[in-house]
Amino acid sequence: MFVMEREDKMILDKINQSKDLKTLSVAEMKTLASEMRELIIKKVNTIGGHLGPNLGIVEATIAMHYVFDMPKDKVVFDVSHQCYPHKLVTGRKEGFLKPENYMKYTGYTAPEESEHDLFKVGHTSTSVSLATGVAKARDLKGEDYNVIAIIGDGSLSGGEALEGLDNAATLNSNIIIVVNDNDMSIAENHGGLYDNLRLLRQTKGQAEANFFKTLGFDYSFVEDGNDVEQMILAFEKVKNTNKPTVLHIHTLKGKGLAVAEENKEFFHWILPGALDEKSEEETAVAVENYTSLTCDFIKEKAKQDKTTIVVNAGTPGVFGFTKEYRDALGKQYTDVGIAEEHAVAYSSALAKSGAKPILAVMSSFIQRTYDQMSQDLCLNSSPITMLIYWGGISGQDATHLCTFDIPLISNIPNMVYLAPTNKEEYLAMLEFSYNQNDYPVAIRVPMVELKSCGTPDSTDYSQLNKFKVTEQGEKVAIIAAGNFYGLGKDAKDELKKQCEIDATLINPRFLTGLDTELLENLKSSHDLVITLEDGQVDGGFGEKVTRYYGNSDMKVLNFGAKKEFTDRVPVADLYQRYHLTKELIVDDIKNTICDKVSK
Question: What is residue 584's predicted lDDT score, i.e. its pLDDT?
Fold first, then answer.
């Protein structure tokens, strides 16, 4: 067993709300911490989720709820990587006790679940700004309560965190910022700020060089943030302070689970079953996929050209950039820490100065960089390669949806956004982007099974916005982008089966512009054009096609996601909702041109 066996009766049985913690002895709190870890480990290993960060903050969470008067006193979590212990003691323990309830609560803070949660939070570096706003509103209303922000896991490197700290320091009233320092981001920390945190840890908070004090904060340090007694004393010391205060606590990421303590990066977030024993078949070498293709491409280019450099913002695991891979790249790899805005501007400057930057970003996090993409990158036409991972409709939490990148990226001038449909297209697009010097190029890394057409792609992608007719037909044209090209093929086959219409199938490849010559030619032999895109329709690729045909007789149907925040809705359900099945697509085609599809 990788977790402790527990007796039938738990201390947690007594805890229905955070106020119940005030009845416990220190010894009972220590037992409670072990129980909470056991439940967190079992749940996360069953359904996946953030493991290491939650294990590391158990004692601090117990102590915080013991000392403060929640929910009158307010706490704001950063990213929500560390909110599971908080949920366990704020009326949501049933979501951890039985497997059938594991999906009852989201993995992030959520006001609809509990009055103890003020905000939906899933992106990083926001807690200090949010807490500062809460504290200022309190002061304007003449109210009296503590406001606590908890920030850790490398989030301090984000620009908003630094902006928030700068403003919070001037409040001249109660705000307590708990810096949960486990000497880690998702991977290792990067940046000068973390050198100062390391110095403060080494000197037990006594170093003269103190980033927080330079901003004007009162400052306290806790050497062992996993000691509930130390944390109680620390919170009692800062409770009801009338000054902006930083409480810097040193904790152990993955505390209580040996493999998570030893491999903090891997166990930051895990898939279901990561702690189970694996058979030889399950641990076999992974097959080739788009991630391995990308890593191999980068490795080869780095060998050929010393100016090739890979940039990412604190999430290397998403892209397959293992510790060994990063070390092999050496100075040709930069992790800027959790700072996507800086990553875009930094990459733009690298390209303008003659380097070959390849910036890897997760779709959900590219949302943080709109201004930098517009001003620092596209306005200057810096020729970087930007790889967008995980783009598409998914069953993710509302905080980590990846459906918005097409509208966001494809509407900025000078940007070229490409959507490959197979291995050869992807490699050709990478080569084009890497070698050209005219545009910033983004490539939506496919989120479908790797497919090969068997022959190299000889397309000249410097001829922008040229679509590819892959199957010539009539009456109906299906323009299916990227991940949904396969769905387009299925819809074509279903339409032929049901209505004996042999539709034209088109792979647009470009998401940022239109092949107006091709669209114009479709008018002569087609009555309907449908577009398929694995993302939000509003502001997306398909609406560009609709706008082109606006003053003509051509009918257009756009298929994709609605403009909405979904929260852990199964993908199959979303496909039904959005009519993204071959049967529903054909039904819509028939309803649109029913008089023309009848025999």
Answer: 98
